[in-house]
Design goal:
The chain is of the alpha/beta class and 231 residues long. The chain has helices at 40-47, 82-93, 97-106, 111-114, 123-135, 153-170, 181-187, 204-207, 210-217; strands at 2-11, 14-24, 29-33, 54-59, 65-68, 141-145, 173-177, 190-194, 198-202. Residues 223-231 have low confidence and may be disordered.
């Protein structure tokens, strides 16, 4: 679905990351981890074409991309509800009502949430809304930037379960930025460790070693094998 070769990005004269290499096949789940400021969000936005880069980004010919940002601030006085927003995008894409209904049901959006003004949705409801919005047009690959960053622990679990269900139901390829290693071990087929450059890439069980964590987070990071703990 995607192959990235020697990817480097500099913004305002500052190198964000250099010589990133990875690939992901259809139906896989790639988790991107790393400390704050390591370039994770910039990497996603570069894949989406937002930033200039050096190197090569090669998408599959049939790739249809959905994007779920980390957070969007919605004005509480904005006079539109989620149904208005979804219908507007569906109209632009020329989607039939049946397709829109399927997306709403797949994202587990209730009638109450549909009719709620955008600015009044809770964190968890808003993330479901963003996922539903990204599903319109039947993407073959979805990029999610810390989709549970502003949600409580119960909401986090529900969102990650939803993402996993959607992946299994539709065969969607997932690229997910996350700080939660338990999520990485549970759902990811591959992990990309990023800290200004590529530190590791491969299955989590073999790629995430004590040496890798030391390079990512420094001496103070305590490594515990995931069979003992997901911390």
């Amino acid at each position: 679905m995607l192959k990235v070769t020697n990817l480097s990005v500099s913004l305002d004269g500052e190198a964000i990351f250099e010589n990133i290499n990875f690939e992901i096949k259809k139906g896989e789940n790639l988790a991107i981890i790393g400390p704050n400021g390591s370039g994770k969000t910039v990497l996603l936005k570069t894949l989406l074409g937002f930033f200039p880069y050096e190197g090569e980004i090669k998408w599959a010919e049939n790739a249809r991309i959905g994007y779920v940002p980390q957070k969007i601030e919605a004005d509480r006085h904005l006079p539109i509800d989620l149904e208005n927003l979804i219908n507007a995008k569906a109209a632009v894409l020329g989607l039939e009502k049946s397709g829109v209904k399927t997306v709403i049901e797949s994202a587990k959006i209730t009638e109450k949430i549909l009719k709620t003004p955008i600015g009044h949705l809770s964190g968890g409801q808003f993330q479901r809304a963003l996922i539903a919005f990204a599903l319109l047009g039947r993407p073959t690959i979805m990029l999610l930037d810390e989709p549970t960053a502003s949600i409580d622990q119960l909401g986090e679990e529900q969102i990650y379960e939803l993402i996993n269900e959607l992946q299994e139901k539709y065969g969607i390829t997932i690229i997910l930025v996350s700080h939660d290693l338990s999520v990485v071990y549970r759902y990811a087929t591959k992990v990309l460790c990023l800290n200004k450059t590529g530190i590791c890439f491969g299955p989590p069980e073999s790629a995430l070693t004590p040496e890798v964590f030391k390079k990512l987070y420094g001496e103070k990071h305590k490594y515990v094998h995931h069979h003992e703990s997901h911390a």
